């Protein structure tokens, strides 16, 4: 049995939810309210979620670790080392992209962590966030989405690595779901639309029955 | 026994530990030959233009187009060198530590990243140098007082899960040890400005672990 615990948002658990669904593996998709977090945090390894509990054992953390575990049991993470390297490279790239976005979330909840005054007024934080998101939309989005487009072109199968979907596709699909849902406020939800292969890939992935069902349920 | 014929490997990175060190350590632990290409910052603009995603480290395998992403390269070397279990639950534990170490690296590197690109962190592009330095000094105090001890505490807690821990996960070295060693060494040798090398000593299992791993013949030889 598998229990995945996270907040009721897409965030860093979504890629693993997608992998479970794509692999046809049943799992408990536990979603906690923010109000429950202080209590859950005490039980969470290293004070973080998402966390995965296998067969009721002590949960483990780290979204990348969980994604790879699901990938292994769902046969979405190639054993062949050259293919696995490709998958890991794509996952790593998308993690770099999400890291570009991270400061624009942190500024709202903990400006001091980025070297700003702890009591920075909400309005100022929002202005800074808007500027950060505008810069990301201008620079990082085209840069990374060009990489994704080029990778799809090189692979040429309609998926990021090899002939079939892998956890690399799950990783980027989660990111695209966040983008298109407006989770990255200030970045146009249409930002991927000018990339033809990426757009076709998104359509392909979201029409896989298990994924379509999951996206509708959300 | 059939001797495995391996490709020629070249790892390209700057001449400091940073994100490349865990890969160098992995090659050494695995006993796999590699060219340890270290580039100067002055060479970076030219390199950047030729690299697939404008980043290093890069792994070149038999002169093929290079592969990026330090964690991807680490896992690849791990698979080749028997440092990365294929059993899903064992691998999950290894990946958990690899991920934690990446978070640790990010946290302690934040002052440096803010200095390099203040705008990305919401500061004016033309922020005076002394203001940046003041910000970095404040952040480093918090790192030393809170974040670094917190992360070291996580690794200490992981070691405490075994009565006699040999390596960070299980009885044999894995890529988790390569990543962790790189981070511990960064703290121990003072590569992070303002971070006292003694921070590791407050965690007895971790301090003993560090001493043990540094005494492994291949590691001792590498850092001699």
H/E series of chain A, N to C?
EHEHEEHHHHHH
What class, by secondary structure content of chain B? alpha+beta
> What characteristic shape of chain B results from the CA principal axes?
globular
Q: Give a quick account of the main beta sheet of chain B: strands, pairing sense, barrel closure.
A: 4 strands, mixed
Distance between the termini of chain B: 32 Å
User: Widest sheet of chain A: strand order?
Assistant: 2-1-3-4
Largest interface: A-B, 42 and 40 residues
Protein architecture, described:
The complex is a heterodimer of chains A (218) and B (224). Chain A is α+β, with helices and mostly antiparallel strands. Helix content of chain A is 57%, strand content 8%. Chain A contains 8 helices and 4 strands; from the N terminus they run βαβαββαααααα. Chain A has a 4-stranded mixed sheet with strand order 2-1-3-4, covered by helices on one side. In chain A, strand 3 and strand 4 (60-61) form a beta hairpin. With 224 residues, chain B is an alpha+beta fold. Chain B has a 4-stranded mixed sheet with strand order 2-1-3-4, with helices on one face. Chain B is globular. Chain A binds chain B through residues 45-46, 52, 54, 60-66, 68-69, 72-73, 79, 81, 84-85, 88-89, 91-93, 96, 99-100, 103-104, 107, 111, 113-116, 128-129, 131-132, 135, 143, 147, and chain B through 52-55, 67-73, 75-76, 79-80, 86, 88-89, 91-93, 95-96, 98-100, 106, 110, 114, 119-123, 135-136, 138-139, 154, 157.
